[in-house]
Design brief:
single chain, 10 helices, six-stranded mixed sheet
Length: 282
Amino acid sequence: MGNKQKDKQEKKGKKKDKNPVSAPPEGDAPAPAKLSRKEYEAELEALQIELVKLQLWALKKGKKIVILFEGRDAAGKGGTILRIMQHLNPRTARKVALAKPTEAERGQWYFQRYVQHLPTAGEIVVFDRSWYNRAGVERVMGFCTDKEYDDFMRSIPFFEMMLIRTGTVLIKIWLDISKEEQAKRFKSRHSDPLKQWKISPIDEEAQKKWDEYTKCKRTMFKQSSTPDAPWTVVRSDDKHDARLNCIRFILDQFNYDDKDERVVCVPDPAVVGNAADPNFFK
């Protein structure tokens, strides 16, 4: 059965679109009203309670859930994942953040080192970067050959369909950021002693190769955003707004027990959108 991201047998009422919101053109999103710190923390706590409900439901129903995060460097992937995982039971919810492949892994089937981290029944696995490294940083930085890249782009729809047909719910989220905000966050990393571990040589190239990354991103969306495994874009210049809307989007994909619809409202369409929306690339 295709990945409908909503369990057909338990769904009631009118069928929902997987990606009900559409994104405005890049760089043209209107600035939302900024939440106070108190308002943000209250909304975050309410959404985290819903995430706990989702985890309990997934365990009870034997669901296999994969949520993968990709995006520009400094777009806020780590902070968003931290808030998602913060109150979940680590026995059945895991974050996967792989280092660069070893010599042995470079000789394997490309997907092999990711497959071993996929969930079993009742688990939620969140990937902080994923197999899509090949479509982005590896392509831009020359870490893969043209043939390796082409093979990956041809294979990815079939690989993901295989996951979906064997019962895995796959949610793909791209955190997007403006060039100006990325530069600001890079500067903050260099001046903050607690963020030194985040600095890498790849960061230094991210601004220089902005256009190359944009080209790869658009090609990736075009070739790998399918009806059963769509890409969802979350605009993350405002970290707080991005985190809240990202969690809302994830929760909105499931009809779990005791779901509070007052908390899990539709994400802000100025922040969250479907990468397949033609307006997105204007």
